[in-house]
Design goal:
Blueprint (H helix, E strand, L loop, with lengths): L11 E5 L8 E4 L11 E5 L5 E5 L7 H7 L7 E4 L5 H12 L3 E5 L2 E5 L8 H4 L13 H8 L1 E5 L12 H9 L3 E5 L2 E5 L9 E3 L5 H11 L5 E5 L5 H13 L2 E5 L3 E5 L8 E3 L4 H13 L3 E5 L7 H10 L2 E5 L8 E5 L5 E2 L2 E3 L8 H11 L2 E8 L10 H6 L3 E5 L18 E6 L7 E3 L3 H13 L3 E5 L2 H4 L5 H7 L3 E4 L1
Helix pairs in contact: 1-2, 4-6, 5-6, 6-7, 8-10, 8-12, 10-12
The structure holds uridine-diphosphate-2(N-acetylglucosaminyl) butyric acid (EPU).
InterPro entries: Enolpyruvate_Tfrase_dom, Enolpyruvate_Tfrase_sf, MurA_subfamily, RNA3'P_cycl/enolpyr_Trfase_a/b, UDP_GlcNAc_COvinyl_MurA
Organism: Epidermidibacterium keratini
Subcellular location: Cytoplasm
Protein backbone atom coordinates (compact mmCIF):
# COMPACT_ATOMS: atom_id res chain seq x y z
CA UNK A 1 0.00 0.00 0.00
CA UNK A 2 1.24 3.51 -0.66
CA UNK A 3 0.04 6.99 -1.35
CA UNK A 4 1.12 8.02 -4.81
CA UNK A 5 2.86 11.37 -4.64
CA UNK A 6 2.45 12.08 -8.30
CA UNK A 7 -1.15 12.64 -9.27
CA UNK A 8 -0.44 11.75 -12.91
CA UNK A 9 0.46 8.17 -11.96
CA UNK A 10 -2.36 7.55 -9.54
CA UNK A 11 -4.59 4.65 -10.40
CA UNK A 12 -7.18 4.37 -7.66
CA UNK A 13 -8.79 7.20 -5.75
CA UNK A 14 -10.87 5.09 -3.46
CA UNK A 15 -9.67 5.96 0.04
CA UNK A 16 -10.92 9.02 1.86
CA UNK A 17 -8.61 11.43 3.62
CA UNK A 18 -8.07 11.22 7.34
CA UNK A 19 -10.31 14.22 7.84
CA UNK A 20 -13.18 12.07 6.66
CA UNK A 21 -14.14 14.74 4.18
CA UNK A 22 -15.44 13.11 0.99
CA UNK A 23 -13.76 15.67 -1.24
CA UNK A 24 -10.34 14.94 0.22
CA UNK A 25 -9.04 11.86 -1.52
CA UNK A 26 -5.90 9.86 -1.12
CA UNK A 27 -4.39 8.46 -4.24
CA UNK A 28 -3.60 4.84 -3.74
CA UNK A 29 -1.33 2.80 -5.95
CA UNK A 30 -2.55 -0.30 -7.70
CA UNK A 31 -1.08 -2.66 -5.09
CA UNK A 32 -3.62 -1.44 -2.59
CA UNK A 33 -6.23 -4.13 -2.26
CA UNK A 34 -9.42 -3.16 -0.59
CA UNK A 35 -9.89 -6.79 0.38
CA UNK A 36 -6.96 -6.45 2.79
CA UNK A 37 -8.17 -3.11 4.14
CA UNK A 38 -11.94 -3.25 3.90
CA UNK A 39 -13.76 -0.03 4.59
CA UNK A 40 -16.70 -1.73 6.32
CA UNK A 41 -16.64 -4.68 8.70
CA UNK A 42 -19.48 -6.82 9.97
CA UNK A 43 -18.55 -7.91 13.48
CA UNK A 44 -20.23 -10.56 15.58
CA UNK A 45 -19.43 -9.75 19.18
CA UNK A 46 -19.20 -11.83 22.30
CA UNK A 47 -15.93 -13.69 21.67
CA UNK A 48 -13.10 -12.83 24.08
CA UNK A 49 -10.03 -11.70 22.15
CA UNK A 50 -7.09 -13.97 22.90
CA UNK A 51 -3.61 -14.22 21.46
CA UNK A 52 -0.67 -12.05 20.46
CA UNK A 53 -0.31 -8.84 18.48
CA UNK A 54 2.86 -6.97 17.62
CA UNK A 55 3.24 -3.20 17.83
CA UNK A 56 5.99 -1.46 15.91
CA UNK A 57 7.25 2.13 15.99
CA UNK A 58 5.02 4.86 17.40
CA UNK A 59 2.75 6.55 14.86
CA UNK A 60 3.29 9.79 16.74
CA UNK A 61 7.08 9.58 16.42
CA UNK A 62 7.88 7.93 13.09
CA UNK A 63 6.52 10.64 10.72
CA UNK A 64 8.27 13.35 12.75
CA UNK A 65 11.58 11.51 12.71
CA UNK A 66 11.13 11.24 8.94
CA UNK A 67 10.66 15.01 8.71
CA UNK A 68 13.86 15.45 10.80
CA UNK A 69 15.79 13.60 8.06
CA UNK A 70 15.36 16.75 5.94
CA UNK A 71 17.71 18.57 8.31
CA UNK A 72 20.63 16.21 7.70
CA UNK A 73 23.36 16.66 5.14
CA UNK A 74 23.68 12.87 4.76
CA UNK A 75 21.07 10.06 4.49
CA UNK A 76 19.10 8.82 7.51
CA UNK A 77 17.76 5.38 8.34
CA UNK A 78 14.74 4.76 10.54
CA UNK A 79 13.87 1.28 11.81
CA UNK A 80 10.75 -0.22 13.37
CA UNK A 81 8.59 1.76 10.92
CA UNK A 82 4.95 0.62 10.84
CA UNK A 83 3.02 0.34 7.60
CA UNK A 84 0.37 2.96 8.35
CA UNK A 85 -1.15 5.66 6.21
CA UNK A 86 0.56 8.53 8.06
CA UNK A 87 3.94 7.10 7.03
CA UNK A 88 2.72 6.97 3.41
CA UNK A 89 1.73 10.62 3.62
CA UNK A 90 5.10 11.76 4.97
CA UNK A 91 6.96 9.62 2.42
CA UNK A 92 4.99 11.39 -0.30
CA UNK A 93 5.66 14.81 1.21
CA UNK A 94 9.37 14.13 1.33
CA UNK A 95 9.43 12.66 -2.19
CA UNK A 96 7.64 15.73 -3.52
CA UNK A 97 10.59 17.71 -2.11
CA UNK A 98 12.95 15.36 -3.93
CA UNK A 99 14.10 13.42 -0.87
CA UNK A 100 14.93 9.98 -2.15
CA UNK A 101 13.06 7.35 -0.11
CA UNK A 102 13.75 3.66 0.05
CA UNK A 103 11.11 1.81 2.06
CA UNK A 104 11.30 -1.87 2.86
CA UNK A 105 9.33 -3.73 5.50
CA UNK A 106 9.90 -1.91 8.77
CA UNK A 107 12.70 0.32 7.53
CA UNK A 108 13.00 3.56 5.63
CA UNK A 109 16.11 5.32 4.35
CA UNK A 110 15.87 8.94 3.32
CA UNK A 111 18.45 10.82 1.27
CA UNK A 112 17.88 14.58 1.41
CA UNK A 113 20.86 15.33 -0.88
CA UNK A 114 18.82 17.09 -3.59
CA UNK A 115 16.00 18.80 -1.70
CA UNK A 116 14.01 21.30 -3.77
CA UNK A 117 10.71 23.12 -3.37
CA UNK A 118 7.57 21.32 -4.44
CA UNK A 119 4.74 22.83 -6.47
CA UNK A 120 1.86 23.85 -4.16
CA UNK A 121 -0.61 22.23 -6.57
CA UNK A 122 1.18 18.90 -6.21
CA UNK A 123 1.48 19.22 -2.43
CA UNK A 124 -2.20 19.98 -2.28
CA UNK A 125 -2.93 16.41 -3.40
CA UNK A 126 -2.08 15.62 0.23
CA UNK A 127 -4.18 18.41 1.74
CA UNK A 128 -6.39 17.24 4.57
CA UNK A 129 -4.54 13.94 4.91
CA UNK A 130 -2.51 14.48 8.07
CA UNK A 131 -1.24 17.04 10.58
CA UNK A 132 2.40 16.29 9.80
CA UNK A 133 2.94 18.82 6.95
CA UNK A 134 3.02 21.71 9.43
CA UNK A 135 6.20 20.20 10.89
CA UNK A 136 7.98 20.63 7.57
CA UNK A 137 8.18 24.43 8.18
CA UNK A 138 11.47 24.63 10.08
CA UNK A 139 13.40 22.07 7.99
CA UNK A 140 12.24 23.63 4.70
CA UNK A 141 13.03 27.15 5.90
CA UNK A 142 16.55 25.98 6.77
CA UNK A 143 17.07 24.08 3.54
CA UNK A 144 15.34 26.35 1.05
CA UNK A 145 14.54 29.63 2.81
CA UNK A 146 10.85 29.13 2.06
CA UNK A 147 8.05 26.62 2.53
CA UNK A 148 4.53 25.92 1.32
CA UNK A 149 2.30 23.97 3.70
CA UNK A 150 -1.00 22.53 2.44
CA UNK A 151 -4.14 22.48 4.57
CA UNK A 152 -3.87 20.05 7.48
CA UNK A 153 -5.99 17.03 8.27
CA UNK A 154 -6.00 14.75 11.29
CA UNK A 155 -8.75 13.55 13.59
CA UNK A 156 -11.66 15.89 14.25
CA UNK A 157 -11.45 15.88 18.03
CA UNK A 158 -11.45 19.64 18.53
CA UNK A 159 -10.55 22.80 16.63
CA UNK A 160 -6.87 21.85 16.54
CA UNK A 161 -5.50 25.33 15.78
CA UNK A 162 -1.86 25.94 14.79
CA UNK A 163 -1.44 29.35 16.43
CA UNK A 164 1.36 28.13 18.75
CA UNK A 165 3.29 26.81 15.73
CA UNK A 166 2.97 30.01 13.74
CA UNK A 167 3.66 32.31 16.71
CA UNK A 168 6.86 30.37 17.47
CA UNK A 169 8.02 30.52 13.84
CA UNK A 170 7.30 34.26 13.71
CA UNK A 171 9.25 34.74 16.95
CA UNK A 172 12.17 33.04 15.22
CA UNK A 173 11.93 35.55 12.38
CA UNK A 174 9.82 33.70 9.79
CA UNK A 175 7.10 35.45 7.80
CA UNK A 176 3.85 33.58 7.32
CA UNK A 177 1.24 34.37 4.65
CA UNK A 178 -2.06 32.54 4.87
CA UNK A 179 -3.63 31.97 1.45
CA UNK A 180 -6.75 29.93 0.61
CA UNK A 181 -4.61 27.06 -0.74
CA UNK A 182 -2.28 26.91 2.28
CA UNK A 183 0.55 28.68 4.11
CA UNK A 184 3.53 30.36 2.48
CA UNK A 185 6.50 30.92 4.80
CA UNK A 186 9.88 32.59 4.30
CA UNK A 187 12.96 32.64 6.48
CA UNK A 188 14.51 35.97 7.49
CA UNK A 189 17.80 37.03 5.94
CA UNK A 190 20.52 35.04 7.68
CA UNK A 191 18.08 32.28 8.67
CA UNK A 192 15.85 31.52 11.67
CA UNK A 193 16.99 32.99 14.99
CA UNK A 194 16.97 31.37 18.42
CA UNK A 195 14.69 33.07 20.93
CA UNK A 196 12.65 32.56 24.11
CA UNK A 197 9.29 30.93 23.52
CA UNK A 198 6.60 30.01 26.02
CA UNK A 199 3.67 27.82 24.96
CA UNK A 200 0.22 28.50 26.43
CA UNK A 201 -0.29 24.74 26.68
CA UNK A 202 2.33 21.94 26.41
CA UNK A 203 1.39 21.13 22.83
CA UNK A 204 3.10 18.08 21.32
CA UNK A 205 3.09 19.47 17.78
CA UNK A 206 4.25 22.97 18.74
CA UNK A 207 7.10 21.52 20.82
CA UNK A 208 8.17 19.44 17.82
CA UNK A 209 7.88 22.53 15.62
CA UNK A 210 10.24 24.46 17.87
CA UNK A 211 12.70 21.57 18.11
CA UNK A 212 12.82 21.04 14.34
CA UNK A 213 13.23 24.79 13.74
CA UNK A 214 15.65 25.64 16.55
CA UNK A 215 18.29 22.94 16.04
CA UNK A 216 19.80 24.78 13.04
CA UNK A 217 18.80 28.32 14.07
CA UNK A 218 21.31 31.03 14.92
CA UNK A 219 21.73 31.18 18.68
CA UNK A 220 19.91 29.62 21.59
CA UNK A 221 16.20 28.85 21.86
CA UNK A 222 14.61 28.37 25.25
CA UNK A 223 11.22 26.70 25.11
CA UNK A 224 9.03 26.91 28.22
CA UNK A 225 5.96 24.81 28.94
CA UNK A 226 7.14 22.21 26.42
CA UNK A 227 5.45 18.83 25.96
CA UNK A 228 7.58 15.94 27.24
CA UNK A 229 5.75 12.95 25.76
CA UNK A 230 8.00 9.89 25.22
CA UNK A 231 7.69 10.48 21.45
CA UNK A 232 9.17 13.97 21.95
CA UNK A 233 12.04 12.51 23.94
CA UNK A 234 12.62 10.03 21.13
CA UNK A 235 12.62 12.86 18.57
CA UNK A 236 15.21 14.62 20.75
CA UNK A 237 17.29 11.41 20.64
CA UNK A 238 17.05 11.43 16.84
CA UNK A 239 18.13 15.08 16.67
CA UNK A 240 20.98 14.48 19.11
CA UNK A 241 22.23 11.64 16.88
CA UNK A 242 22.17 14.15 14.02
CA UNK A 243 24.44 16.54 15.94
CA UNK A 244 21.90 18.79 17.69
CA UNK A 245 22.47 20.25 21.15
CA UNK A 246 19.28 20.00 23.21
CA UNK A 247 19.10 20.07 27.00
CA UNK A 248 15.98 18.90 28.81
CA UNK A 249 15.58 20.86 32.04
CA UNK A 250 13.06 20.22 34.79
CA UNK A 251 9.67 21.99 34.66
CA UNK A 252 9.10 21.52 30.93
CA UNK A 253 12.00 23.70 29.77
CA UNK A 254 14.01 22.77 26.68
CA UNK A 255 17.21 24.61 25.72
CA UNK A 256 18.31 24.23 22.14
CA UNK A 257 21.70 25.56 21.06
CA UNK A 258 21.63 26.04 17.30
CA UNK A 259 24.44 24.28 15.41
CA UNK A 260 25.74 24.92 11.86
CA UNK A 261 25.25 21.48 10.42
CA UNK A 262 23.39 18.24 11.11
CA UNK A 263 24.01 14.76 9.70
CA UNK A 264 21.88 11.73 8.94
CA UNK A 265 20.86 9.36 11.72
CA UNK A 266 20.30 5.66 12.29
CA UNK A 267 17.48 5.17 14.76
CA UNK A 268 14.99 2.58 15.95
CA UNK A 269 11.63 4.16 16.76
CA UNK A 270 10.15 3.61 20.22
CA UNK A 271 7.15 1.27 20.26
CA UNK A 272 3.62 2.58 19.93
CA UNK A 273 2.36 2.87 23.53
CA UNK A 274 -0.98 4.21 22.29
CA UNK A 275 -1.65 1.18 20.13
CA UNK A 276 -0.47 -1.13 22.94
CA UNK A 277 -3.00 0.46 25.33
CA UNK A 278 -5.76 0.11 22.73
CA UNK A 279 -5.21 -3.67 22.61
CA UNK A 280 -5.05 -3.76 26.42
CA UNK A 281 -8.50 -2.14 26.56
CA UNK A 282 -9.76 -4.60 23.95
CA UNK A 283 -8.64 -7.47 26.22
CA UNK A 284 -10.44 -5.93 29.18
CA UNK A 285 -13.68 -5.05 27.39
CA UNK A 286 -14.02 -8.47 25.71
CA UNK A 287 -12.93 -10.42 28.83
CA UNK A 288 -9.93 -11.60 26.85
CA UNK A 289 -6.18 -12.07 27.15
CA UNK A 290 -3.83 -10.29 24.75
CA UNK A 291 -0.04 -10.24 24.74
CA UNK A 292 1.30 -7.14 23.02
CA UNK A 293 4.72 -7.96 21.61
CA UNK A 294 6.99 -4.93 21.37
CA UNK A 295 5.18 -3.02 24.14
CA UNK A 296 7.41 -1.49 26.81
CA UNK A 297 6.59 -0.63 30.39
CA UNK A 298 8.43 2.72 30.92
CA UNK A 299 6.23 4.75 28.56
CA UNK A 300 3.06 3.08 29.86
CA UNK A 301 3.44 3.48 33.63
CA UNK A 302 0.41 5.76 34.01
CA UNK A 303 -1.77 3.58 31.81
CA UNK A 304 -0.74 0.43 33.68
CA UNK A 305 -1.75 1.97 37.03
CA UNK A 306 -5.20 2.77 35.67
CA UNK A 307 -5.53 -0.66 34.04
CA UNK A 308 -4.76 -2.26 37.41
CA UNK A 309 -7.19 0.01 39.31
CA UNK A 310 -10.01 -0.92 36.92
CA UNK A 311 -9.30 -4.57 37.66
CA UNK A 312 -7.24 -5.65 34.67
CA UNK A 313 -4.12 -7.71 35.15
CA UNK A 314 -0.85 -7.41 33.29
CA UNK A 315 2.54 -9.04 33.19
CA UNK A 316 5.61 -7.32 31.79
CA UNK A 317 8.34 -9.19 29.97
CA UNK A 318 11.24 -6.77 29.74
CA UNK A 319 13.24 -8.96 27.41
CA UNK A 320 15.58 -10.23 30.11
CA UNK A 321 14.85 -13.83 29.18
CA UNK A 322 15.96 -13.27 25.58
CA UNK A 323 12.37 -13.28 24.33
CA UNK A 324 10.93 -10.13 22.71
CA UNK A 325 9.71 -7.45 25.09
CA UNK A 326 6.00 -7.67 25.65
CA UNK A 327 3.16 -6.94 28.02
CA UNK A 328 0.36 -9.44 28.55
CA UNK A 329 -3.00 -7.88 29.45
CA UNK A 330 -5.99 -9.86 30.63
CA UNK A 331 -9.36 -9.76 32.33
CA UNK A 332 -9.10 -11.96 35.43
CA UNK A 333 -12.83 -12.66 35.64
CA UNK A 334 -15.26 -11.11 38.08
CA UNK A 335 -16.36 -7.48 38.19
CA UNK A 336 -14.31 -4.52 36.97
CA UNK A 337 -14.08 -1.44 39.23
CA UNK A 338 -15.39 2.01 38.31
CA UNK A 339 -12.96 4.89 38.71
CA UNK A 340 -12.44 8.62 38.19
CA UNK A 341 -9.66 9.84 35.93
CA UNK A 342 -8.66 12.81 33.89
CA UNK A 343 -6.60 12.95 30.74
CA UNK A 344 -3.47 15.07 30.76
CA UNK A 345 -0.23 15.72 28.95
CA UNK A 346 2.65 13.35 29.76
CA UNK A 347 3.40 12.03 32.24
CA UNK A 348 -0.35 12.08 32.89
CA UNK A 349 -2.99 9.77 31.48
CA UNK A 350 -2.84 10.34 27.71
CA UNK A 351 -5.90 11.56 25.86
CA UNK A 352 -5.34 8.86 23.22
CA UNK A 353 -5.84 6.17 25.86
CA UNK A 354 -9.15 7.64 26.94
CA UNK A 355 -11.55 6.47 24.22
CA UNK A 356 -10.70 2.74 24.26
CA UNK A 357 -10.69 2.78 28.08
CA UNK A 358 -14.20 4.25 28.22
CA UNK A 359 -15.53 1.06 26.59
CA UNK A 360 -13.92 -1.03 29.33
CA UNK A 361 -15.33 1.37 31.96
CA UNK A 362 -18.82 0.81 30.52
CA UNK A 363 -18.40 -2.76 31.78
CA UNK A 364 -17.20 -1.74 35.26
CA UNK A 365 -19.36 -1.90 38.35
CA UNK A 366 -20.61 1.55 39.38
CA UNK A 367 -20.06 5.16 38.27
CA UNK A 368 -16.86 6.20 36.51
CA UNK A 369 -15.89 9.77 35.70
CA UNK A 370 -13.66 10.76 32.79
CA UNK A 371 -12.53 14.40 32.52
CA UNK A 372 -10.96 15.14 29.12
CA UNK A 373 -8.58 18.10 29.55
CA UNK A 374 -6.47 17.97 26.36
CA UNK A 375 -9.09 18.19 23.60
CA UNK A 376 -12.36 20.05 23.95
CA UNK A 377 -14.31 17.66 21.74
CA UNK A 378 -13.14 14.10 22.34
CA UNK A 379 -16.26 12.63 23.92
CA UNK A 380 -18.61 12.74 20.92
CA UNK A 381 -17.99 9.04 20.35
CA UNK A 382 -20.00 8.23 23.49
CA UNK A 383 -23.28 8.81 21.55
CA UNK A 384 -22.64 5.66 19.54
CA UNK A 385 -21.74 3.67 22.65
CA UNK A 386 -25.07 4.75 24.19
CA UNK A 387 -26.79 3.56 21.01
CA UNK A 388 -25.24 0.16 21.77
CA UNK A 389 -26.63 0.13 25.31
CA UNK A 390 -23.95 1.97 27.32
CA UNK A 391 -25.04 4.55 29.92
CA UNK A 392 -22.79 7.56 29.43
CA UNK A 393 -23.78 11.14 30.18
CA UNK A 394 -21.55 14.00 29.05
CA UNK A 395 -21.22 17.36 30.80
CA UNK A 396 -19.87 20.83 30.13
CA UNK A 397 -18.54 21.10 33.68
CA UNK A 398 -15.13 19.89 34.82
CA UNK A 399 -16.02 16.79 36.84
CA UNK A 400 -13.80 14.72 39.07
CA UNK A 401 -11.72 17.29 40.94
CA UNK A 402 -9.61 19.73 38.97
CA UNK A 403 -10.66 22.61 36.74
CA UNK A 404 -9.28 22.69 33.21
CA UNK A 405 -9.09 25.39 30.50
CA UNK A 406 -12.41 24.14 29.02
CA UNK A 407 -14.32 25.07 32.19
CA UNK A 408 -17.23 27.44 31.35
CA UNK A 409 -16.39 27.12 27.65
CA UNK A 410 -19.50 25.17 26.71
CA UNK A 411 -17.66 22.04 25.57
CA UNK A 412 -18.96 18.63 26.60
CA UNK A 413 -15.68 17.40 28.05
CA UNK A 414 -16.60 15.33 31.14
CA UNK A 415 -18.35 11.97 31.10
CA UNK A 416 -20.10 9.92 33.75
CA UNK A 417 -20.23 6.25 32.83
CA UNK A 418 -22.62 3.96 34.63
CA UNK A 419 -21.90 0.25 34.40
CA UNK A 420 -21.94 -2.56 33.83
CA UNK A 421 -23.99 -2.12 30.65
CA UNK A 422 -25.06 -4.91 28.34
CA UNK A 423 -23.92 -3.82 24.88
CA UNK A 424 -25.72 -4.88 21.70
CA UNK A 425 -24.74 -4.66 18.05
CA UNK A 426 -25.39 -1.50 16.02
CA UNK A 427 -24.52 0.24 12.76
CA UNK A 428 -21.59 2.58 13.40
CA UNK A 429 -19.55 5.11 11.42
CA UNK A 430 -16.02 5.66 12.68
CA UNK A 431 -15.48 9.31 13.69
CA UNK A 432 -11.71 9.39 14.40
CA UNK A 433 -8.79 7.07 15.05
CA UNK A 434 -9.14 6.30 18.76
CA UNK A 435 -12.89 6.79 18.88
CA UNK A 436 -13.06 4.34 15.99
CA UNK A 437 -11.00 1.76 17.84
CA UNK A 438 -13.36 2.13 20.78
CA UNK A 439 -16.35 1.40 18.49
CA UNK A 440 -14.60 -1.74 17.31
CA UNK A 441 -13.93 -2.90 20.86
CA UNK A 442 -17.55 -2.18 21.76
CA UNK A 443 -18.74 -4.17 18.74
CA UNK A 444 -16.47 -7.06 19.72
CA UNK A 445 -17.78 -6.98 23.30
CA UNK A 446 -21.43 -6.60 22.30
CA UNK A 447 -24.07 -9.25 21.82
CA UNK A 448 -25.09 -9.67 18.16
CA UNK A 449 -23.85 -8.18 14.92
CA UNK A 450 -22.50 -4.69 14.29
CA UNK A 451 -21.67 -3.05 11.00
CA UNK A 452 -18.78 -0.63 11.31
CA UNK A 453 -18.07 1.79 8.45
CA UNK A 454 -15.09 4.04 7.78
CA UNK A 455 -12.20 1.73 8.67
CA UNK A 456 -9.89 4.01 6.64
CA UNK A 457 -9.39 6.10 9.73
CA UNK A 458 -8.22 3.04 11.67
CA UNK A 459 -5.60 2.18 9.03
CA UNK A 460 -4.11 5.65 9.61
CA UNK A 461 -2.70 4.49 12.92
CA UNK A 462 -3.16 0.74 13.45
CA UNK A 463 -0.86 -1.39 11.33
CA UNK A 464 -2.27 -4.64 9.94
CA UNK A 465 -5.45 -4.06 11.89
CA UNK A 466 -7.69 -6.70 10.28
CA UNK A 467 -4.99 -9.37 10.39
CA UNK A 468 -4.33 -8.67 14.07
CA UNK A 469 -8.02 -8.87 14.84
CA UNK A 470 -8.28 -12.16 12.95
CA UNK A 471 -5.28 -13.54 14.88
CA UNK A 472 -7.05 -12.73 18.15
CA UNK A 473 -10.04 -14.83 17.16
CA UNK A 474 -12.46 -12.00 16.38
CA UNK A 475 -15.49 -12.98 14.39
CA UNK A 476 -15.85 -10.54 11.48
CA UNK A 477 -16.16 -10.30 7.73
CA UNK A 478 -15.44 -7.53 5.26
CA UNK A 479 -18.68 -6.06 3.95
N1 LIG B 1 -3.23 23.57 20.53
C1 LIG B 1 -3.50 24.89 20.33
N2 LIG B 1 -2.73 25.58 19.43
C2 LIG B 1 -1.72 24.99 18.75
C3 LIG B 1 -1.44 23.62 18.95
C4 LIG B 1 -2.23 22.92 19.85
O1 LIG B 1 -4.40 25.46 20.94
O2 LIG B 1 -1.04 25.67 17.94
C5 LIG B 1 -4.08 22.80 21.46
C6 LIG B 1 -4.92 21.73 20.71
O3 LIG B 1 -6.07 22.30 20.17
C7 LIG B 1 -5.19 20.72 21.80
C8 LIG B 1 -3.93 20.79 22.66
O4 LIG B 1 -3.28 22.02 22.33
O5 LIG B 1 -6.30 21.13 22.56
C9 LIG B 1 -2.97 19.66 22.46
O6 LIG B 1 -2.65 19.52 21.08
P1 LIG B 1 -1.23 19.00 20.59
O7 LIG B 1 -0.58 20.08 19.79
O8 LIG B 1 -0.49 18.47 21.76
O9 LIG B 1 -1.65 17.81 19.64
P2 LIG B 1 -1.04 17.41 18.24
O10 LIG B 1 0.42 17.61 18.23
O11 LIG B 1 -1.85 18.00 17.14
C10 LIG B 1 -0.44 14.97 18.91
C11 LIG B 1 -0.85 13.61 18.43
C12 LIG B 1 -2.26 13.30 18.88
C13 LIG B 1 -2.31 13.39 20.40
C14 LIG B 1 -1.82 14.77 20.87
C15 LIG B 1 -1.75 14.89 22.38
C16 LIG B 1 0.38 13.34 16.40
C17 LIG B 1 0.35 13.24 14.92
N3 LIG B 1 -0.79 13.54 16.98
O12 LIG B 1 -1.34 15.86 18.27
O13 LIG B 1 -2.53 11.97 18.50
O14 LIG B 1 -3.63 13.20 20.83
O15 LIG B 1 -0.51 15.03 20.32
O16 LIG B 1 -0.91 13.93 22.92
O17 LIG B 1 1.41 13.21 17.03
C18 LIG B 1 -3.86 10.14 17.93
O18 LIG B 1 -2.81 9.49 17.94
O19 LIG B 1 -5.00 9.64 17.82
C19 LIG B 1 -3.77 11.60 18.07
C20 LIG B 1 -4.79 12.42 17.87
Amino acid sequence: MGVVADAEHATITGRRGASGSPDVRFLIDEECTLAADASTLKIVGGTPLRGEVTVRGAKNLVPKAMVAALLGSTPSRLRNVPDVLDVDVVSSLLELHRVSIDRTDGEVTMDPGSVTSAEPSRLNVLAGSSRIPILMCGPLLHRLGKAFIPDLGGCRIGDRPIDFHLDALRQMGATVDKEPEGLYLSAPEGGLRGTKIELNFPSVGATEQVLLSAVLANGITELRNAAVEPEIMDLISVLQKMGALITVHSNRVLRIEGVDKLYGYDHTAIPDRLEAASWACAALATKGDITVLGAEQPSMLTFLNVFRKVGGQFEVNDGGDGKPRSIRFWHPGGALSAMALETDVAPGFQTDWQQPLVVALSQADGLSIVHETVYENRLGFTDALNKMGAHIQVYRECLGGSTCRFNQSGYLHSAVISGPAKLHGAELVIPDLRGGFSYLIAALAAEGESTVHGLELIYRGYEGFSAKLRGLGANFTAA
